[in-house]
Structures are given as structure tokens and as C-alpha cells.
Amino acid sequence: MNKFTPSILLVSTLIFSTGCQNNPNSGRDIGIVVGSILGGVAGAQMGDGSIFAGAAIGGVLGGIGGSELDRRKEALEAAEAQRQYEYEQEVQAQESLEADIKTLEEKRIRDEIARKATTADVSAAEQEAARVEAQLAAKKKSYEESQARARRIQEAQERIAKAQRELAELERQENGG
Fold this sequence. Notes:
Blueprint: H1 5-19, H2 26-46, H3 51-116, H4 119-174
Helix pairs in contact: 1-2, 2-3
């Protein structure tokens, strides 16, 4: 191997390790580095100082290949973004369609009831609603009364406990405690 080969490999490795991070042209840059390394190695094998020519030709070819990879990667990413957008549009359209179907079904049921309902049906429904509302009001009143009784019992228990503490304190004082 030529005496320049290790230094070219070292420089190429440094470029490769630092120059390709978060770079949109990373394929091109990697292609240049790898092509330069391989071209330099091939040129060194040929002798006659061809190491630099090999590295240059390899870098150019590697850059072209890497640029093509970058272009294909961007095209794939754009296609994926388009597919994602179309999928989201389809989901929104499906949700809208389902909401429309639900609204139409509710309207169909109302229309069917309206066509078939008689005055007697309306009266019976209103009477049932009044009966259920009266039952609800009675339950609410009963519940509120039971809660009031429970509060009064708790208050009485607290008064008993307080009186018992005071009585015990007085008895202790009377007994010399």
C-alpha cells in the first residue's frame, strides 16, 4: 500500500462520521466518502500515484449513486405522506358518513312514529311521562328526607360525644384528677 492510503482512509472516516448526521443529502455524502475510500484503495493497488485519481473518481461516482438513493428516499417519503393524508381523509369521510347515517336513522324513526301515532298514542305517552316524573319526584323527596334524618342523627351523635367528654372531664376534676 502507498504511504498516502492510511491518511486518506483516516480523513475519509472523519468526514463520514461527522458529516452525515441530520443531513438531507446523507446518501450523497456517504456515497462520496465510500466511493473515495474504495477509489483510493483501488488507485493505490494500481500504483503510479493513481490513489488521488481513484479517490476522486470513486467520490464522484459514489456521490452520484448516493444522490440517486436520496432522491428515491425522498420520493418514498413523499408517497408515504400522501398515503397517510389520503387515509386520514378517508377516515374523516367515513366518520362523516356514519354521522349522516345516524341522523337519517333518527329522522326515519321520528317520521315513522309521526305517520303511525294517533291522538290516543300521544295522550298515553304524555300520561306515562307524567307518571314516571311523579315517581321520580317521590323518590327524590324520600331520598332527601332520609339524608336529612341521617344528618340529624350524626349531629346528635356528635353532641352526645361532646357531652360525654365534658362529663368525664368534670368527674375527673371532682375526683381530684
